[in-house]
Structure formats: C-alpha cells, structure tokens
Amino acid sequence: MSAAEQNVIGGLMLLGDLSGDTAQKVIGMLSPSSFSDVDLGIAFESITRLAERNGRADLFTVDAESKHDNRYRPEIMDYLASVSAGVPSSANIVSYAELVRSESVERSAVSTLNNAIATITDKSQGDIYQRLGLAESQISAIQDRAIRNNTQGLRHIKDVGKDWLAEVENRLEGKTRGFTLGIDALDRMLYPKRVPAGSLVVVGARPKMGKTALLTHIALHYALERKEAVAVFSLEMPEAQIYERMMVNQSHVNPEIFYRAAKDADDWAAVCDAAGGFNQSQLHIDDTPGIRIAHVLREARKLNRKNKVGLVAVDYLTLMEASGAERNDIGYGQITKALKNLAKELNCVVLLLSQLNRSLESRTCKRPLPSDSRDTGQIEQDCDLWVGLYREGAYNVTPNEELTEAIVRLNRHGNTGTVYFDLVDGTVREADQDAARAAIDTPQKVKNLNY
Fold it and tell me: Is the pLDDT of residue 451 over 50?
C-alpha cells in the first residue's frame, strides 16, 4: 500500500474545490489505473467524475459517487475516512501525485519486461528477428507511457474526447496541424488536414521518375524548415551520394562543381552555408544495404528517444529483406504494416518509396496506380497517402523534359489530384502549375527508352 496514493486522495478531499489549478493538475497527471490500491483507484475515478460536474470532493460525496462502481464495498467509506484523517495538509499533493505516477510506470515497466522476455522465447511469434522487434516495441511503450501518461488498451470515450478537444483547440490556435511536405502545390492540395501525424505516405514510380529526389526534398523540409528529427534509410544509394543530392537541393548549385573547379566563388559559399545548416539539423542517414524491418524500427526508436522524430523515410521497399515469409508479397506486406504501426507509435510521418512493375509501361496511359506496386498488394490497405510520379519526358520528346507529375491517387484525409514539379539536376524544384498543365496537353514525340 502506497502512502503517496493515500496522500493524493486525502489531499483532494481536503482541497474540496475541484475546479482549482492544483486539483486540476493532479487529476490531469493521473488515471484510476495509476493506483495500485483498488479502493483508492475507485475513489480517484469518483473524484474525476465529480470534477467534470463542478462538484466538490469530501468523504460523503466521494463515497456516494463510488457506489456507482460495481467494485464498491461498504468498507470503502471507513477506509476513506481513515485516509482523510491521516493527511494533515494538501500542500504537497502535486509532489505526491508525481510519486504515484512514477510508481505506476515502474510497475508497468516490470510487467512489460516480463512480457518481452516471454515474447523472445515464444517461437510461435516468428523468427528471432521478428520476436526481437516485438519485444522492442513492447519496451518502447514503457517510455511512451512515462512521457504521455497513457496506456495501450481500451480507453473510455470521454478520455478520448478530452484529448481530441485539446487537439482541436491547438489546431485552431495554429499550434499543431498536419505536416507539410515542402512542395507548395502539393501542400495546397492536401490542405487543411495536410498529412496527419501517424501517417504512412507511399511514393510509387518507375526508375528515373524522381522518387529519391522527392524523398531528399521532403527530408530536408522536415529537418531544416520544420526543425524535426529525420531518419533516412537509403538501401539504394550510398550516404555520400544522398548527401550530395541534398547539397544540390539546398544550395541550388550545378552538381558539376563537385567534379571540376567552380567558376563562381558564390557557388562554394552557397555550399558552405548549406553544410552549416545540415550540421545544425537533426538529419540522420543510414545506408546499410538489405536491412530488415527490425533494423528500421530499432534505429528509429533509438533516435526518437534522443529527439522527437518527425519523419522516417525508406528508399525503397523491395530492397528490404522480407524475412520469415513464404512469398515476397506476404513479406513486403508485413513490412508496410510494421511501418504504419511505427508511424502511429512515434506519432510521426513514415515515407516509403516503392518501385512499380514494368508492366505498366505496356499500357497506353503509363501514369501509375497503387496496384502497380511490385510484389505487394498490401500497400493500398496500409498507406494513408499514395503518390505516383510520372515524367512524360522519360518516354517522349517534350518541350520541358524536367516536368514531373505528382499524382495523388489515395488520400484518407482529403483531396486527390495531380500537381507538378520540375526535376532539375536530380532535385525537386517548384513549377508553375498553369504552365505545367498547358505543357502536358501539348502533343509529344515518342523517344527510345534506354532502361
């Protein structure tokens, strides 16, 4: 039995007025499950209900409210009377509430660690890498509860409603909104919800369409403009090449200067400025080849413990090792599901690139569809936003071979449609949307493909 728990309940009854800042702070810090003593948990839940009705807490009102709980025992009133008599003052009630919360997290941690050990040794949960991933997810939830004072599992709708109302107030005050992606036309299309935290965003395209360029552009937007921690997993391109692409994107220099002497000293000044911004950011790159999903989950959680992660980006799906599955489509489906769960767990955005099937090139209209994703039909079920990239200049001779279409085919939170950007030196540049639409309508000549 915890003396701190008794002091919290006794202190709240001494305060009486539950509308004051002190009482509201204590009620906001704890939940009935924070109490190891069941009777005190019942009393705290009763006090919470009284506070919602602007009622007062004393021995009789708390006892009367507790009778609505099917766990109520007549002995509770005598118990609360002794608790109230044993607390001389409510002066340190906030400190006692912090102690109750810490003890609750500690109990949860011990239970979770025991469950994690059981998971690791249970071969029915998959291969050792899958079991380690499950165990790590359970352990990560310990810290999540400590930070958010929240547990996984069923929550009463009134508690969900409180969180929702606070979120709406923050949105209307401009404190929290969905994430932008750093391309004006695309962000305008996705307005007002934009990309909510917890979303899996999939970008699908054939080679040479600008998938990696878009990923680097979005990663820089999160790291440099939004000031978020970013984890980029590049399975296709070495980290030095990713860095060079980011440098060109940010400094707007011609990439040829990295292979010959620059003609303009201002170019190197722009490079130095961009490098300074990179060094001050929380942008991280992992170019480990052929990684498993467990590696991505582990590294993302590790970074999140140091700095709140805003974006996890993976380039690209079918280069990951789909372990423990009979077929690739099943294995890749497990990966997309795990990435969606990671987005929810870290309350961030996960950006996943997907290579599309060559068969789409046999169609008259080669603009991509979610069903063109190679070796996986799970993407459509798991993703919140699916964007296909198409560049007419890859197939035909056009006046503007750099013009690229970003086609939003699926969007659980809002609009779909097509916007445009230019692909210049392997980097994304804003395009005039009206001029782009006019250019798309111009007849083109077919060109020979070299891939």
Answer: no
SS3 per-residue string spanning 83-95 = HHHCCCCCCCHHH
Amino acid, res. 179? F
C-alpha closest to that of 296 among 436, 170, 129, 145: 129
Q: Are residues 162 and 197 in the same domain?
A: no
Do 119 and 70 reside in the same domain of the chain? Answer: yes
- Look up residue 153 and give its two tokens: 């599992």
Same domain, 319 and 432: yes
User: Which amino acid is residue 249, in one-letter code?
Assistant: N
What is the spatial distance between Cα 429 and Cα 91, in angstroms, rounded to a whole number? 60
Domain annotation covers residue 177: no
pLDDT digits (tens, 9 = 90+) for 269-311: 999 999 999 999 999 999 988 788 888 888 998 899 889 999 9
Tell me: cis bond preceding 192? Omega within 30 of 0 counts: yes
- Exposed/middle/buried for 217, CB within 10 Å: 0-12, 13-18, 19+? buried
> Does residue 444 carry a pLDDT above 60?
no
Helix (H, G, I), strand (E, B) or coil at 267: helix
Examine the domain organization and report whether 221 and 287 are in the same domain: yes
Per the CB < 8 A criterion, the answer to whether 89 and 40 are in contact is no
Residue 249 phi, psi (nearest 5): -60, -45
Say yes or no: 135 and 246 in one domain.
no
410 is in which domain, residue-wise?
184-446
Distance in angstroms (rounded) separating the CA atoms of residues 237 and 286: 10
pLDDT digits (tens, 9 = 90+) for 186-213: 999 998 888 999 999 999 999 889 999 9
Exposure of 348 by Cβ count < 10 A (0-12 exposed, 13-18 middle, 19+ buried)?
buried
What is the percent of the chain with per-residue pLDDT over 90, rounded to a whole number? 29
**427 and 380 housed in the same domain:** yes
Contact 205, 390 (CB under 8 A): yes
Pairing of strands 396-397, 229-234: unpaired
- Indicate the range of 346-350, 393-397, 400-404, 414-418 predicted with least confidence: 393-397
This prediction's pTM:
0.70
Are 192 and 294 in the same domain?
Answer: yes
Give the mean pLDDT of 372-386: 78
Is position 287 within any domain? yes
Same domain, 147 and 254: no
